């Protein structure tokens, strides 16, 4: 069961027509306050979304003459929970609104942080770990505390993947047999203390490393430069605050190399979880388009210009010239192959196979010219119920043909 904070803020009196609260005024005030406090704030439609830290989000919306919102705090941790309460009070004070808060932990009333953390966050966490150990043999892929609309990472045997890193079952079992320790809590919750201590900054870096880091050279793209730089800055801040903190030394040195940055001296630091290779994007990622799940290499960039039922992923210039296109087409009746696509003059070979009630037809093309380079390509149609999924994969190295066809084989039904 999640730990939630729900709230509403209402005007205390009737304002003059030009000073009435509405969606626009709420959004403007929220953005100005976020800028002052150094929080990330984004407006999506009529909603305002604050990001206090990785996994720490707060939603606001103007509805029925009130600002209403909520946030889930159990993943980011008790420090985030307390920070939200104090932020809401500041927001209400600055805006002149009356604040109403529903907080089942009792922290809003008694401000007893240690009691709130122990009775709610640590109890929730213990129950979660107990369920993981009970269900470890029943689940195909053990992923917990993971965004529902996000990609799925590759399955790792003997591991449970969380928002912050992978945990071996042996580590969880040892923790449960000895009782929840403060050390383990500091490794799971992003924000475990009231203050932003060294563990907070290290854990923010771990979440970014685990979920978003491509582990590619900063020179490849602005995304790589930003994420690599952000993680390095957070890790170095944590190390400066607490030199003996368990530290992801191997990953830190790797990122410094990718960013062409001289690392700080980490020769004497204690390595964090040596057996764990941090970074989901080092493997394949699984996403869904319509009725089908597909896999892409985690270090591929996403083309944000495309959307809807069409996606493009690519690895950037000077990285092998790989491009992956996929789109879903729904038909009124049972889908069927468009045979003319496989009868073109440049089709070198065709392959057909079936998997989980889906039918696949693949065309291997003769190499051609693309943006001044010689490129190889394969294309496929996958038929399942009333959906035809179309895939095109481009690559410069002819030896990557098997790699491309194996990616097509990973397109499979999910519903």
- What structural class do you assign from the helix and strand content? alpha+beta
Silhouette: globular
Indicate the low-confidence ranges by residue numbers.
none
Distance between the termini: 26 Å
How many DSSP H or I helices? 10
Element-level helix/strand string? EHEEEEHEHHEEEHHHHHEEEEEEEEEEHE
E-strand count: 20
Q: How does the major sheet shape up? A: 8 strands, antiparallel
Q: Fraction of residues in helices? A: 25-40%
Mean pLDDT: 90
What is the number of domains? 3
Any idea what the radius of gyration is?
25 Å
Beta-strand level of the residues, as a percent range? 25-35%
Structure explained in plain terms:
The mean pLDDT is 90. The protein has helices at residues 23-37, 78-95, 107-110, 113-135, 169-178, 182-188, 198-211, 222-241, 249-258, 401-409; strands at residues 4-11, 40-44, 47-53, 56-63, 66-72, 97-103, 152-153, 159-161, 166-168, 284-289, 292-297, 301-302, 310-314, 323-330, 347-355, 358-365, 368-370, 373-384, 387-395, 412-413. The strands form 4 sheets. Strands 12, 13, 14, 15, 16, 17, 18 and 19 form an 8-stranded antiparallel beta sheet that branches. The chain is globular. With 415 residues, it is of the alpha+beta class. It folds into 3 domains: 4-110, 2-Layer Sandwich (Double Stranded RNA Binding Domain); 114-258, no CATH class; 283-413, 3-Layer(aba) Sandwich (Protein Transport Mog1p, Chain A), CATH 3.40.1000.10.
Task: Provide keyphrases for this structure.
415 residues, alpha+beta, Protein Transport Mog1p, Chain A, 8-stranded antiparallel sheet, 6-stranded antiparallel sheet
